[in-house]
Design goal:
The complex is a heterodimer of chains A (386) and B (182). By secondary structure, chain A is an alpha/beta fold. Chain A has 14 helices and 15 strands. In chain A, the strands form three sheets. In chain A, strands 2, 3, 4, 5, 6, 7, 8 and 13 form an eight-stranded mixed beta sheet that branches. A five-stranded mixed beta sheet of chain A has the order 10-12-11-14-15, sandwiched between helices. Chain A has a two-stranded antiparallel sheet with strand order 1-9. In chain A, helix 11 links the parallel strand 11 and strand 12. The chains are: A alpha/beta (386), B alpha/beta (182).
């Protein structure tokens, strides 16, 4: 279906990644946001708070991030599309309810504008230190989707995509910005509403008495209902059966949690998105994401100018990770260079799928700024010398 | 046009960040170029030295930060002292005449100065001195089309002040053209 024109501010704007994220959410049909504003994500909810009253949305400034991340799930079960927005310590506080959203298959969006940590860290400065937390931060086993924009335009586009994926797979989707992308201002083009594709919620259409709220369709995703529509439903974080009632047995656990993981794992080919530049025939491939994918470009260009065959693979979905493509490339390239603003997170995933078939060189950065492209160039040259 | 880095410095409250928005908007929305502005987070509303950093290019911009600005506009002494050493070799330095005394000015720079405060006062609002500076910069650098800048000024200033700001821009622009002709 197409976006509701009421929320879509068609035109060309010079806005930052945070504001673009807010516009993306509105265009995607998000009408409920609960948050506890925190730097550098504050501008997202500022804009939401300003825009929502005009289009029939509701924003609540909650008492903390724990409350924010559960309030949005109430909003979703009441029939809204909803998101919460945070950074740093707030992201840690949301982990319990990220797990609840995964367990109850509540489609919602968590935006994390990454700043340098741990703890309070550097509130106003960038990092990419939450990438593994995004995947594994809540306890137990589950799967999520995480997207990494590298510009304000992509922040707009991927926020829409995040809402669409959330509905398609009934899963929490994480939008992993970083302070740099969040606060960077560039041209953002918002298309007309009839050019924005929106995935509607999949509602149960059968007879009321036949509803099984957690019985999946072929794609492993069950349909939903709205609270208040007269269904007797039970939504719990406890291991549950297809009706949603607690069933605390190893058999129920195996069936449910396996499906929660499989619905992302087995659909990974359809979900995974990355962008390649001159990867065919490359001897060295730089794997990057978010702001680092732009900082790497001068380094890659310098290496190419010196005759090195360097490709660039930019992750758009960090999770699920493009395992097949990395494994495939590992048989043809000499090595991979992975710059990230942390001391080695996504590089572990690269190493796991390269499995020793090629060299993998991390270019770490503690956070607070971006890499000096010279450091990325040096790593490319090092791997190139083999 | 190749990648051009611009830095605007002054003190919080002078409209430094707004000036950055105007340049970015003019370039990327009205002049078919690319522009990236990095928010100098911190003191912009608090009265100490602050800056806006903008990259303008005919091509898509990869690296978003500026490293050695070819064009620098400064509207306070502190900003001059703090930022002017960063200007690229042979770059352009634009200063406000009354607010900046360019002591030990680097010989390699092309320096332009304008009494923007006085012009703004003549227009009745000292606040528009940043817009006077934008008009002046447009004239002396030729980096961005004047019509693009005019359009960007109009949509960037508070509603009801468009005429005042247009006048401020034009006064700065004409002053700059006069200097170029001289």
């Amino acid at each position: 279906m197409k976006a509701d024109p009421k929320g879509v501010m068609t035109g060309a704007y010079f806005i930052d990644g945070d504001h673009a994220c807010a516009e993306g959410a509105i265009a995607a049909g998000c009408r409920f946001v609960a948050g506890y504003p925190i730097t550098p994500s504050t501008e997202v909810v500022e804009r939401i708070a300003e825009r929502f009253p005009l289009i029939g949305g509701m924003f609540i400034q909650m008492e903390d991030e724990i409350a924010s991340s559960i309030a949005i799930q109430g909003g979703v079960w009441a029939g809204k599309k909803a998101m919460t927005v945070t950074s740093g310590p707030g992201f840690s506080l949301m982990m319990e309810h990220l797990g609840l959203a995964a367990m109850t298959e509540t489609p919602c969006v968590f935006v994390d504008v990454q700043r340098a940590g741990p703890s309070t860290g550097l509130p106003t400065l960038p990092a990419q230190g939450d990438m593994m937390q995004a995947r594994w931060g809540s306890h137990g086993d589950y799967a999520i989707i995480a997207l990494c924009p590298n510009s304000p335009q992509e922040s707009f586009n991927l926020t829409i995509k995040a809402f669409n994926l959330a509905e398609q797979y009934r899963v929490p989707v994480l939008l992993m910005l970083d302070e740099c992308v969040g606060h960077m201002t560039e041209r953002v083009v918002i298309p007309p509403a009839d050019q924005i594709e929106i995935t509607p919620r999949r509602y149960w259409e059968g007879p009321k008495e036949d509803l099984l709220l957690f019985k999946a369709d072929k794609d492993l995703v069950p349909p939903m209902v709205k609270a208040g529509d007269g269904y007797n439903i039970h939504v719990t974080g406890l291991t549950h059966d297809e009706r949603g009632y607690p069933d605390m047995t190893p058999a129920a656990q195996e069936k449910l949690v396996r499906r929660l993981v499989d619905k992302i794992r087995l659909n990974a080919d359809a979900i995974v998105e990355y962008k390649e530049d001159q990867v065919e025939g490359a001897e060295i491939v730089v794997v990057s994401y978010g702001i680092t994918s732009r900082v790497a470009i001068p380094a890659i260009e310098q290496a190419r100018a010196e005759g090195m065959k360097v490709g660039h693979l930019r992750l758009i979905t960090a999770w699920p990770f493009p395992t097949k493509r990395i494994r495939e490339l590992s048989t043809t390239v000499r090595g991979f260079v992975v710059p990230e603003i942390n001391f080695g997170q996504m590089v572990r995933e690269v190493e796991r799928w390269v499995a020793g078939r090629a060299r993998v060189r991390l270019v770490p950065h503690g956070g607070g700024s971006v890499h000096d492209p010279k450091d990325i160039y040096a790593a490319i040259a090092y791997v190139g010398k083999g | 046009m190749a990648r051009t880095e611009i830095k605007i410095g002054g003190f919080g409250g002078q409209g430094i960040i707004l000036s950055g928005y105007i340049i970015g908007r003019a370039a990327s929305i009205y002049d078919a170029k690319f522009a990236t502005m990095i928010q100098a987070f911190g003191p912009e509303a608090r009265g100490s030295a602050c800056s806006a950093q903008i990259v303008v290019d005919d091509h898509e911009i990869a690296y978003p930060y500026i490293t050695s600005p070819r064009i620098m506009v400064v509207m306070s002494q502190e900003a001059y002292t703090k930022f002017s050493p960063e200007v690229a070799e042979g770059g352009i330095l634009i200063t406000e005449d009354e607010l900046v005394k360019p002591h030990s000015l680097r010989k390699d720079l092309t320096h332009y100065s304008i009494p923007a405060t006085r012009i703004a006062e003549e227009l009745g609002r000292k606040m528009v001195l940043n817009i006077v500076m934008m008009g002046f910069m447009t004239a002396v650098t030729g980096l961005i089309g004047v019509e693009a800048m005019r359009s960007a000024v109009k949509v960037s200033v508070p509603r009801g002040t468009e005429m005042l700001n247009s006048n401020a821009f034009n006064r700065g622009y004409e002053f700059g053209l006069g200097l170029k002709r001289a």
